[in-house]
Request: fold
Amino acid sequence: MRRLNLCASSLMTAGLLSVAAASPAAAADKRPIDVSASARVISIPSPSGAVPQDTTYAGLAETMVSVGLDTAGVPCAQCVPGAGGNNIGLPWPVFAIPQGATMSISTWFESTSYTGPCTAGLFVKQGSTVVASGSFPFPGGCQSGNLYGVFFTVPAPTTTGYTSVTGAITGGTNKSGAITFINVQ
Reply:
């Protein structure tokens, strides 16, 4: 269990560093594609429920980002037959994406004890160039005891090579991110 927590912590830290490094200035000669308008949201009660505020942890954390080919009917909530309880359906996660394909990028975060304004974000980078980005400010903010998924429809870059995909959440003094990588072929 401790090893899993360390891995999750490492991914969140790497995501945070990527979020801090991604800025529109990084792509001064070419503006990134803004995919904000494609954002869709799912919110389900967290299996652990709301927990009391802990002063060492602000209660809002990015937990996962995944990339799949855009697939009809997913992402969805409470849609996996036989899964019981709260469940989600996602496009099959992939590592390799063909140039110009349409991706569905899922970014997940949990609000265990934070209630307040929050914004989900996404950065797709090749090297130091941000090729796509998006954000979704939650109109009613985040509520403690919930798991949130924000999904962006993103065209795969036309340039081949390894590409980082970072999901991020900000709310109050909280900033958290998770990162994954794809190979555009």
